[in-house]
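[Amino acid chain]
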Amino acid sequence: MIMDGEKADAGEIDQVALLGLRSGRLNRRSFLFGSAVVGLGTLGLGGCVTSDGGMSLAEAQKVYGPVPTEKFPIPAADVSKVDPKYYRRTVRYETKEAPGTIIVDPGNYYVYRIEEDGNATRYGANVGRDGFRWSGDAYVGRKGEWATWTPPKEMIKRQPEAAKYAGGMPGGLDNPLGARTLYLYQNGAYTLYTIYASSDPESIGSGITSGCVGLLSQDMIHLYDRTPVKTKVVVLPA
């Protein structure tokens, strides 16, 4: 996999499953991201969440509307396919973590960015499927916009149709990495896990990946712009 111009080891995404290529375009919904690797260690962190009313469908259609200013203009997300509880919202969240910290709650399909005064911005997410979830502390080691994706040799061997991308699939709307990616590190090493942009609204609120976490593109851009390198990330047990 190539990320931000860096060549990643082929084994990093050994478990990526490309289940279908339609008319020469990558079927992103069929993509199971990441690699089944050793967990980062369990962490017990309780978060008490309360919330009031969320967005209406009309409001969500505005928030998740098209983003024409991007390098690759992003179309509106079909939020009618998303359970309203996964729309972005501000909620109460009691935690000892500092503002700016990202907390991933895979059991409930949420990602939180801790704000001031006991609040958090909450985003709906897709997460790792059963058997591929992990928990522990990490941090954002690097960030990427419209990164290139390269299938590992192991994947090409299993699925020859992916060979057409052996030289790298440039960033774009059909690229599995999406518009933005936060790469999670621990002790100076890339963990193989990411928080990435998903263009598939039907995936939000489900476990479909091999450990990575996806937000709708509009939410991912919102989080990415407020997340510097070195930001702490806590992944709760599912």
Summary: The helical segments are 57-63, 153-158, 217-224. The CA atoms of residues 79 and 124 lie 12 Å apart.
